[in-house]
Write a structure and sequence with these properties.
This protein has 364 residues and is of the alpha/beta class. It contains 16 helices and five strands. The chain has two domains: 145 residues, 3-Layer(aba) Sandwich (Rossmann fold); 185 residues, Hypothetical protein af1432, CATH 1.10.3210. The longest helix is centred in the middle third of the chain and has 56 residues.
């Protein structure tokens, strides 16, 4: 705030005079008017003055200490209960000169203390000083709020950009695969729902949802002859196909973003099995990261119930029956149980993200 702007703000600031003697209110209002302060109001009722100050439209209160109904100290304490951004500064004016009164007033929250009788220049300068501090404080508070809002907006933009990049990377892998267009969307929202129902924090569930699309990014490194083969792979081809988990881990290694770190974890772990027979590391049980276990359950269900060039879509009943059968061997049994209980919600998400290939899916 420039000096001329601050000067105008000081002289147009709202000042409230609270004193139980009408003559004091009138005198102070006149002195302030002479000093160039054009927005001065007054009251002889401390209760009314407190109500006026609590509204938040005043920059400064000139306050007497000894008043009926409500003394100066209690006035300050009640006013301090309000939000600091709306609370006016307070200058105490009193004929009491003892240290205890001064200390109590300042400890209660008064900005300054003027002893009666006072000189006009002292009154005007202390009022000016208090108003400058108050105006600059409120302006700083406003700027901080604006900066915080900008940070929130920019952070949201960065999150959207990051999620968009991940979707595009997953689409790059999908172009080389036989999976249907909405598979990534479906299994991601399944994973998000399961994470929430498992009791994970919302932020962690959202990260799993946003990182899940990169679970098969490593398929970019698998030869087309194997990746696009119609029919079952032979043993040698299957060993090559299994490398996509480690390839995905290599693609995503070194990412500084927590989301990319989580995506790498999912890429490396979503083919691990509960009994330790999975790949690429043969992890077992709870040694498998929870995000990988959640994505595995979500991915298996959608893969089974989606049509592929090498297989027809399974019915929901058949897919669920299979998942229950491999619960405790392939899939985390607790997560399979949770998935089974949440099946109605899962099917709602599935319908919402249905694609043309899925329209031929048999219903339960």
């Amino acid at each position: 705030m420039t000096e001329p702007t601050l000067e105008r703000a000081v002289h147009t600031a709202s000042i409230l005079v609270v004193d139980d003697h009408a003559s004091n209110v009138e005198m102070l209002s006149g002195l302030l008017d002479v000093g160039g302060f054009s927005n001065v109001f007054g009251t002889t009722d401390a209760i009314q003055g407190l109500a006026m100050a609590e509204v938040g439209s005043y920059d400064l209160v000139l306050l007497d200490m000894r008043m009926p109904k409500l003394d100066g100290i209690e006035f300050i304490r009640r006013l301090r209960a309000h939000d600091a951004a709306d609370r006016p500064a307070i200058i105490v004016l009193t004929a009491q000169t003892d240290d205890e009164t001064r200390r109590n007033a300042l400890n209660a929250g008064a900005r300054d203390f003027i002893t009666k009788p006072f000189k006009l220049w002292e009154l005007l300068q202390r009022v000016r000083n208090a108003l400058e501090i108050q105006i600059l404080y409120r302006r700083t508070r406003q700027l901080n709020d604006e900066l915080e809002e900008r940070v929130v907006v920019r952070t949201a933009e960065l999150k959207d950009t990051r999620a968009d990049v991940i979707r595009r990377l997953s689409a790059a892998a999908e172009f080389r695969d036989n999976e249907t267009g909405q598979h990534i969307a479906r299994m991601s929202v399944f994973a998000h729902h399961l994470a929430l129902k498992l009791g994970l924090p919302e932020a962690e569930a959202v990260n799993i949802r946003d990182a899940a699309p990169l679970h098969d990014i490593g398929k970019i490194g698998i030869p087309d002859a194997i990746l696009l083969k119609r029919g079952r792979l032979d043993a040698a081809e299957w060993e090559i196909m299994k490398r996509h988990a480690e390839i995905g881990g290599q693609i995503l290694v070194g990412g500084k973003s927590p989301l990319l770190t989580l995506a790498r974890t999912i890429a490396l772990s979503h083919h691990e099995k509960w009994d330790g027979s999975g790949y690429p590391r043969g992890l077992k049980g709870e040694a498998i990261p929870i995000a990988g276990r959640i994505v595995a359950v979500s991915d298996v269900f959608d893969a089974l119930t989606s049509e592929r060039p090498y297989k027809p879509a399974w019915s929901v009943d058949d897919a669920v029956a299979y998942m229950l059968e491999v619960s405790g061997s392939h899939l985390d049994p607790a997560l399979v149980g949770l998935f089974h209980r949440e099946l109605p919600a899962i099917l709602t998400f599935r319908e919402r993200f249905r694609d043309q290939a899925a329209s031929a899916t048999a219903h339960a």
